[in-house]
Specification:
- The chain has about 230 residues and is α/β, with parallel strands linked by helices.
- The chain is built from 5 helices and 11 strands.
- The strands form 2 sheets. It has a 6-stranded mixed sheet with strand order 6-7-8-9-11-10. A 5-stranded mixed sheet has the order 1-2-3-4-5, with helices on one face.
- Helix 3 links the parallel strand 3 and strand 4.
- Helix 2 runs parallel beside helix 3.
- It starts with a strand and ends in a 13-residue tail after the last strand.
Length: about 230
């Protein structure tokens, strides 16, 4: 699956994923006469179910979702209920979740109406927010989209790193205006590096990409390909 599984010197483990697009139609794939229609219809849910199972099996400390759990307005409230059930599975396994809203699931009446389990922490859209995990000394910094067309650079509002802790930035961004994706919350690699965080968990670009160094910057890619040009996991 195109989700990043990170292990820090045997001390803790986490998964970084993004761009789940639950119940998104798989464009063009279902038009083939011999296509397995039922499997295609549930493909995004199956991919996410597998991701949650992997998190539980590996006993990760936390899961980061860097935007776009949903694919815009829900056509069926069961989409949200499915997500809540999956978060409940993680709660029973004592796994924390850090969720950021991107352009496809920017704050809406439906997302606000969902009652998520208490292991799920949603980044604010009004300003950058920090969540601390004291027992493993991890600080997660992020800011959700309030509206879909967020074209400002959100990075200047992110706080300074917590000294001597692992600092993870969570951001839904086109990153220097990737030509194949809408230029939401654009910023540069240099700006990310200058922030002083050790890891950037990015979302929005549907391709697996990682740059290592003093600051690791990563896109996990989308979990399930939705058309012929997307690999998925």
């Amino acid at each position: 699956m195109l989700a990043l599984f990170i292990k820090d010197e045997g001390k803790m483990k986490f998964i970084h994923t993004a761009d789940i697009h639950l119940d998104s139609p798989l464009r063009g794939l279902s038009s083939y006469p011999d296509a397995p229609t039922e499997r295609l219809r549930t493909a995004t849910r199956d991919a996410f179910d597998n991701l949650v199972s992997s998190a539980i099996d590996e006993q990760v400390d936390f899961l980061i979702i860097a935007g776009d759990v949903y694919d815009g307005d829900w056509k069926d409230f069961n989409t949200g209920l499915f997500f809540v059930r999956q978060m409940g599975r993680l709660r029973r396994a004592n796994i924390l979740v850090y969720l950021l809203h991107g352009n496809h699931d920017a704050e809406s009446e439906m997302t606000r109406g969902l009652e998520l389990p208490d292991n799920v922490h949603v980044f604010s859209s009004s300003k950058a927010q920090t969540f601390l995990i004291d027992n493993i000394k991890v600080a997660l910094h992020g800011r959700s989209f309030k509206i879909a067309a967020t074209t400002d650079n959100l990075l200047p509002s992110y706080p300074q790193p917590v000294p001597s802790w692992l600092n993870i930035g969570v951001l839904h961004t086109a990153l220097e205006g990737n030509s194949e994706h809408a230029k939401y919350a654009p910023c540069s690699v240099a700006e990310l590096q200058a922030k002083g965080y050790q890891y950037w968990a990015l979302g929005h670009v549907h391709e697996h990409w990682i740059q290592r160094g003093d600051t690791t910057i990563a896109y996990p890619g989308n979990l399930q390909g939705r058309h012929i040009r997307e690999l998925g996991g």
